[in-house]
Fold each of these.
Amino acid sequence: MLKSDGSQDEGGGGDTISHSSTLLRRLETLLVQGNSSDVVLRVETPSLDEVKVIQAHSLVLSLQSPVFEELLPSRNGSTLLLRESPDSAAVFDKFIRYLYCGEISLRLEQATPLHKLATKYHVLELQQGITQFMTQNLARDSPSGHVVGWYEYALQAGDITLRDSCLQYLAWNLSSVLLSGEWATMSSQLLMSLLQRSDLILQSEMELFAALEAWIIQNEPDSLIAENALRAVRYAMMPPQELFRLQTQSPILAHYQESVRDLLYMSYQFHSASPLHMAKYFDVNCSLFIPRNYLSPVWGSAWVINNPTRDDRSTSFQTQLGPSGHDATKRVTWNALFSPRWLPLSMRSMYTETGAMQPTRVEGGRPRIIITPATSSADFAGVNFQKTVIVMAQKQGKVVVRHVYNFHQSTEENGDFLAEANLYHRTSDYLIDNSLYLHIVVKPLYQTLITAKN
């Protein structure tokens, strides 16, 4: 193959002759046939249930792996004995083939053992490639689930990128995770990591409690683990009638009620008193009183925007003023405006006289959402509304959370809203059937006031 590379030499422009694919095929043939092999890799499992013998070449192994470069000089004769776990031994031939050819095909269940081998033998490009494969395939269906297993492995291997990707996927898609077989297999450490997060996306706190109760019944953890998990539930985010039902019908809560009695008592106080009055005496900014990202209609609304690049869109929805029972009958109407080409605030004065909340659409502008209350009210005193826009996407045939954006009034505040999304391309990762699937969540946060003196 002849390619022009645009380089210059004494005779003018230069061309490149490339037969790299032919070279790779010959290297693969060299491995398969074992021609000119100078080392035998004998791969054994601890129980000797599986033994593999591979004819290899020390030059190739040393070039690709610094670990092999150290091991090969110390081999006994022509044989290098390698002891691997059964799952690693099963894919060892794939691993060696990568060292010769620089490519690999793998299935979900092969990702972890191949990552182990790449890590053990310091084949960094393969290690990084498999991490990328795993992070891109978190949503793929598998018979018994794989995200929890990948998280536990990443924690053990010290792969921070994979660990954080798995944890974020579990947190952002928790409702579907709760219904899967993976939930019951979760370790107590992972369970607590999730329970302590405020960015969990699920229908309601009651849904989380029901799943936690099932986890405790199935796993039978020691009392300290169960108590810590139950104390991470945000009981104040449940209406009083749900709390009453839990206290009378939940066997787990009945068994551990003494451990969470103070939280239940504070939750009932939270629902019965005025939040403004309660904020004078208690810290209402602790996790018990902070909502998660609830998808229930009480907290927000789904919004599907067809052909999002076409023009500005608007919608209205209502939420409860706050999670306190004192505010249960109070509603706030919100107006949401989406603009596909919104001029940045720093430039807006050049085009508008009033400046304020009206978007200015120009070529090259970026998508923005602005959310404001339809009317102001004295009831808003002491309440800060955090807005969250959840962007859905379709991966491996499944609708999952693609991104989450938090802001106070406009997505312009965080600067990166849909920054990576090319909404003009039908193949954009952010579009489902050429539509933008959003869910807006309004999270009311009560503000602690000056502590009252006795």
Amino acid sequence: MMRVLICGPKLAACGIVLSTWGVIMLAMLGIFFTTHSAVLIEDVPVTDEDIHEDKNPPQRIYELYNKVGYNCFIAAGIYVLFAAFSCCQMRLNKQREYLVH
């Protein structure tokens, strides 16, 4: 396996912090969207057709809530990957410091 050092220790630490915050925030948003929180209705892409032309309006809006919630969970998963990448970079930086000294 080829190990490539792409970023320094400070950037890797920053990536870990930001990724951790992104995972927490997006996971919480995903939970709130999938539980159909009324506070987040402005962030659901509802059109007039979804409200007026649908025979079962709440069901269509709940589907949109779930769709946005799943997108939040996918984004949180991507942040997990970035956190893992940042952790690998931190480890490589520590190994490099150990070898240099």
